[in-house]
């Protein structure tokens, strides 16, 4: 079913978001297997849980695209980076999460300015969840002795 009106840029944001969410799925899934192989069972379980959360984000975007009458079109899956230890893996995740946070924030603000409340809310909810992911990663890294730069307002910088 096609939604009556939406700005074409909304589709652009959804497409970019889908690419990033699938990339996150691939990255966390790879890292879960890698840490499992390293014997880091707890980290592997946590990364597996992250994989599921990112998969659910991807699913929400797919559903939204279908509601808008367009076929999901993720086109840029990033390779999962390789690393030699958990800290380096988590730093890669921090980078990806920061990028996703920035995308959702931009998308939410754009829809807000446009007066498209439905999509502003859609992107804002995802933004909040990714901010929480980013914060959880920062906390995890801090427990591993890698404190990252602090928050500035609502934004998260690494
Ligand atoms: Fe996500
Ligand atoms: Fe995330």
Descriptive terms for the model:
mainly alpha, 0% strand, Ferritin, 158 residues, single chain, elongated, binds fe (ii) ion, 4 helices
Describe what this molecule looks like in 3D.
The protein has 158 residues and is mainly α. It has one domain: Up-down Bundle (Ferritin). 72% of the residues lie in helices and 0% in strands. The protein contains four helices and no strands. It starts with 7 loop residues before the first helix and ends in a 15-residue tail after the last helix. The C terminus is likely disordered. The structure holds fe (ii) ion (FE2) (2 copies). The site of one fe (ii) ion has 6 residues, from helix 1 and helix 2.
- Whole-number count of domains: 1
CATH architecture: Up-down Bundle
**Helix proportion of residues, in percent?**
over 70%
Write down the secondary-structure element order: HHHH
What is the CA-atom radius of gyration, in angstroms?
16 Å
Largest sheet: none
Bound molecules: fe (ii) ion
Q: Termini separation (Å)?
A: 40 Å
| Average pLDDT rating | 91
Count of helical stretches: 4
Structural class: mainly alpha
Low-confidence stretches: 152-158
Number of strands: 0
CATH topology-level name: Ferritin
CATH superfamily: Ferritin, core subunit, four-helix bundle
Given the C-alpha coordinates, what overall shape results?
elongated
Determine the strand fraction and express it as a percent band. Answer: under 5%
Q: Which CATH class applies here?
A: Mainly Alpha
């Amino acid at each position: 079913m096609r939604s009556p009106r939406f700005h074409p840029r909304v589709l652009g944001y959804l497409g970019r978001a889908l690419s990033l969410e699938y990339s996150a799925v691939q990255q966390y899934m790879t890292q879960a297997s890698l840490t499992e192989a390293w014997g880091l069972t707890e980290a592997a379980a946590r990364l597996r849980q992250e994989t599921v959360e990112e998969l659910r984000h991807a699913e929400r975007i797919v559903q939204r695209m279908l509601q808008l009458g367009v076929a999901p079109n993720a086109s840029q899956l990033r390779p999962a980076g390789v690393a030699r230890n958990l800290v380096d893996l988590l730093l890669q995740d921090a980078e990806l999460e920061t990028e996703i946070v920035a995308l959702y924030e931009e998308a939410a603000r754009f829809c807000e300015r446009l007066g498209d409340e439905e999509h502003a809310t859609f992107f804002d909810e995802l933004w909040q969840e990714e901010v929480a992911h980013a914060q959880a990663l920062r906390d995890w890294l801090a427990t591993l002795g890698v404190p990252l730069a602090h928050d500035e307002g609502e934004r998260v910088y690494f």
